[in-house]
Design brief:
Elements: E1 3-7, H1 13-22, E2 27-31, H2 35-45, E3 48-49, H3 53-57, E4 62-65, H4 70-77, H5 83-86, E5 92-95, H6 101-113, E6 117-120, E7 123-124, H7 126-132, E8 135-139, H8 143-153, E9 157-162, H9 168-196, H10 201-208, H11 216-226, H12 236-253, H13 258-272, H14 283-289
Parallel strand pairs: 1-2, 1-4, 2-3, 4-5, 5-6, 8-9
Antiparallel strand pairs: 7-8
Helix pairs in contact: 9-11, 9-12, 9-13, 9-14, 12-13
The protein binds NADP nicotinamide-adenine-dinucleotide phosphate.
Length: 290
């Protein structure tokens, strides 16, 4: 059993922290900006809530963060009363936010100056993956730190990989988002075409999902897409945040991402349709609007 802090009890963090307590059996202290969520968490799982990230992190062996973007992450780690100011030497900061590789390197340096370790550890698997404790976790950092952190991370994960040095976890998550962007647009176009052709879409998907075109998105989203329902997971606003990180990194490393850049613009159009909180399969709504 370890002493663990969890900062950021959103859609993802709330159940992830819950698994650290119930499945991992750890002594968990939580912090959330909106204190009511932290109180609700303690009522549901036990453990304790702290008033600041620094207070939550004090005396902990592992400190998890799962907030929105780079700036949110800076605020809860190196900002006023940030986690790092409360962490003891030897403790490890594990960040599950989807953020840039740059901020990961920045935080690794700040952690090192305090005698602490850092692992960037963004996740994939969505709300359902977090609730069921079966996330995929893509880590960047030193092997020795990873070996210490892995058994703790295991409480909310099905797959945990060390991808390379600090930043490699975030870079891997970027590849994940690149692959999803093009795929969802392809699926949206397929469904759009199928409807225009007057085919029975359920029948079409039943057959082609067993062939080379099959995908998780096809299996899990075709039905709701066909019904024009877009309330099933990862929001367009979050995807745009992620694609912005991806495209910035691509400008740095020289990768050509023409389809990803185009799909990012399409998501911009979905936002203009009022789809900020719709899930990423809402690319179809944009096609049907025309
Ligand atoms: N949702 C998904 O399916 C999914 C999947 C994979 C990865 N992710 C990534 O995981 C991260 C969290 O996503 P989520 O869906 O859990 O988001 P969310 O439900 O919006 O929760 C965000 C959490 O961060 C806190 N927060 C945000 N800005 C903050 C700040 N400046 N200071 C302090 N706390 C702050 C929020 O506190 P309040 O409660 O006070 O607002 C909340 O606890 C994001 O980077 C997202 O891209 C999400």
């Amino acid at each position: 059993m370890a002493k663990v802090a969890f900062i950021g009890l959103g859609v993802m963090g709330y159940p992830m922290a819950g698994h650290l307590k119930t499945k991992g059996g750890h002594d968990v202290t939580v912090y959330n900006r909106t204190a009511a969520k932290a109180e609700k968490w303690v009522f549901e799982f036990g453990g304790q809530a702290a008033a600041t990230p620094a207070e939550a992190a004090s005396d902990c062996d592992f400190v998890f963060t799962c907030v929105g973007n780079d700036d949110d992450l800076r605020s809860v780690t190196i900002g006023e009363n940030g986690a790092l100011s409360g962490m003891k030497p030897g403790a490890i900061l594990i960040d599950n936010t989807t953020a840039s590789a740059e901020v990961a390197r920045e935080l690794a340096e700040a952690a090192s100056a305090k005698g602490c370790g850092f692992i960037d550890a963004p996740v994939s698997g969505g709300q359902a993956g977090a609730e069921n404790g079966v996330l995929t976790v893509m880590c960047g950092g030193d092997l020795a730190l990873f070996d210490k952190a892995r058994p703790v991370i295991d409480a909310f994960a099905r797959m945990v990989g060390l991808m390379g040095p600090v930043g490699a976890g975030q870079l891997t998550k970027m590849i994940n988002q690149i692959c999803i962007a093009g795929l969802v647009q392809g699926l949206a176009e397929g469904i759009h075409f199928g409807k225009k052709a007057g085919l029975d879409l359920e029948k079409v998907i039943e057959v082609i999902s067993k062939g080379a075109a099959g995908s998780w998105q096809m299996e899990n989203r075709h039905k709701t897409m066909n019904e024009g329902k877009y309330e099933f997971g990862f929001a367009v606003d979050w995807m745009r945040k992620d694609l912005d990180i991806v495209l910035s990194e691509a400008r740095r490393n020289g990768a050509a991402l023409p389809v990803t850049a185009l799909v990012d613009q399409f998501y911009g159009e979905v936002q203009k349709l009022g789809g900020n909180r719709w899930d990423t399969s809402s690319l179809l709504a944009r096609l049907e609007k025309k």
